[in-house]
Amino acid sequence: MFNTGLTSNDLWLLAQGAGMTLLVTAIAVSLGTILGIIFGVLRYQLGPWWALPLTFVLDVFRSIPLLIQLILANAFVNMILVPTLKIGKVSGFTVACGVLAMYTAAYCSEIVRGGIEAVPANLRRASRSLGMSWGQDMWNIVMPLATRVALPSWIGLALGVMKDSALVYIVQVPELLKNTQILITRLQEPLLLLMICGLFYFLISFPIARFGGYLEKRWSND
Amino acid sequence: MFNYSFRWNQAFASLPQMLEGAWVTIQIALLSMAIGITIAILLTVFRRSGNKLLSGVASTWVEVARNTPALFQIYMVHFGLGGFGIHLSPYLSLLIGIAFNNAGYLAENFRGALKAIPETQTRAARSLGMSQGQAFTNVVMPQMLRISFLPITNQMVWAILMTSLGAVVAMNTDLFGVTKALTDRTFRTFEYFAIAAVIFYVITKVITVSARLLAARLFRY
Amino acid sequence: MKVSIALGGIALAASLATTAQADKLDDIIASGTLRCAVVLDFPPMGSRDASNNPIGFDVDYCSDLAAALGVKPEVVETTFPERIPALMSGSVDVAVASTSDTLERAKTVGFSIPYYAFENAVVASEKSGITDADGMKGKVVGATAGTYEAIWLEEQVKSWGAGEFRPYQNQADVFLALSQGQLDATVSTMEVAQANVKTGNFPGIQIVDKAPMVPDYVALITLREEYGLINFMDLFVNQQVRTGRYAELYKKWVGEGEPASLTIPGVYR
What we know:
The complex is a heterotrimer of chains A (222), B (221) and C (269).
Chain A: H1 8-50, H2 52-63, H3 66-85, H4 92-117, H5 121-129, H6 134-164, H7 176-187, H8 190-221
Helix pairs in contact in A: 1-2, 1-4, 1-7, 2-4, 3-4, 4-6, 5-6, 6-8, 7-8
Chain B: H1 8-12, H2 15-48, H3 52-67, H4 70-82, H5 90-115, H6 119-127, H7 132-147, H8 149-162, H9 175-186, H10 189-218
Helix pairs in contact in B: 2-3, 2-5, 2-8, 2-9, 2-10, 3-5, 4-5, 5-8, 6-7, 8-10, 9-10
Chain C: H1 2-19, H2 24-31, E1 33-39, E2 47-48, E3 54-55, H3 57-69, E4 72-78, H4 83-88, E5 94-100, H5 103-106, E6 109-118, E7 120-125, E8 140-144, H6 148-160, E9 164-168, H7 171-180, E10 185-189, H8 190-199, E11 205-210, E12 216-223, H9 227-242, H10 245-253
Parallel strand pairs in C: 1-4, 1-5, 8-9, 8-10
Antiparallel strand pairs in C: 2-3, 5-12, 6-12, 7-10, 7-11
């Protein structure tokens, strides 16, 4: 098993893949979180009925396998949109980031809404009756309190997105799993290479997950 | 409007095949949940047992399930165990892979739920003459499952979505596998997968809505 | 209002696009680059060398085509199922990717005349006791999803009414499953089978027979309506054989022996 054809060149390829995984995750999570906060606040402000169309659209992203979302988005953009509009090539990277960002936003809006709802209504009435504007109330009262409730779930979400980003190999993004597969094809040592790949995910995910658990424990005690 | 000619008729002609695939998908999800919940309860007991070995096994299981991609887990069930001469069919590999993932996530949920159940209840049950095991099965566990009802529903939805990963272990009878085989042959990716997406959506909606109705009936007080 | 303007814009753009359709052959020559989709997990046709650069029969064939056009070649890696989307999106001009010329595919893309023909081999695990193609009957067999041989093998399993067919996602997984004993046999192109058996990475597998199927003729593909380019590619393939380049590439990538005949007796193409 340790008699391997793996060279330092190949390890570099894996490292590049890992970098791509982290890059895609970072873009998707930041974009998705911004969108998720906007959607979450909107959904809370509009109330369940008026927010129904938005809720429905976001729900679609949570009810269809991510793999199918990626395949469909890629097929739609490349086979239908690009030839129709005669725009240049849209890279798999763009498609992957777009789909993953919406996927993140769908879950994030749920977390944000839960966070806002967890702030006691009386507290908000009190702040408004002290003369705070809606914006001041949101910024100074709701945000700090809602963040405490939402942060552990958000960390879970971000890690979930990182693990799910393994699926973007389907749109030809050279991320960790895709590069692992390139090496598997050449070296024909699937098990060893996959163990390395799995270990990488574990090493990133495990400490952050532990940190999330620690935050949750610490913040729920006071 | 689009510079692409859709061939919906061709795709719709395969609908019966895809629905058969959907049924397989539902079966796998249900079975994986039944296995997952059972194992998650065992893992929870292990983690509370105080036995170093048992709780070590349980913690490793939970951490690996939660910290690596599900795709990796399913692949490893098929080819990892295959390396040791344990040969599982694609169906079983997918089922066990998802069950492994379910068990890890549910065990963590159960741990959270247990925190909400006061320790005094166990003591009260013990003082009524129940054994430790009886106290857990009759007093603690029903409440634990009730508190975890929503997370269990979510996991069920994820189990449905995870069946789409079966293609890596050559699974070709579930909804994703059937759709993939059809598109490999015809190249009509968009049409077939759009239909598959709608079917997946309907399945997950049916699950969440019926879970909500069930919850309303079960926890009426 | 805004929406209707936007839609109008799209419609306008689409109509302009259709009226101003340029010939792809001209476009390629004007752009100075030929972008080829090549599948790189399919040795010896396409693979990577030790520094992970693309090499193989198809890679060289793409370079030859580019040279014939007087432009530079650019290899774009795709998987088997991704070849067509890559073409339709215009991210590649042609696919030099061992594409079997099936009628089903001809509904979507345009084929040149065949530029290569594969013989398929039955590869079995030693434990299975399979010694010829008939021995596969009723056993667990598999192949790479979506390939010509996979489609053939699946039909076989259906006609036997016994046994099981498993479509793995790539060639490496098929041979791994075979060497672990999860599969009893597979059918793959003779070239791929020989290359994989030779690596020694998969103990316990051997080529036992030729698969009793029509040779797998593969062709260059481009968009269905690009007759100018298809015409050029037909002549190019013909010239490759005529000048001996085909035999030369065969020797370089596949090995000694006679390259497969690309004509079918008794019928025109």
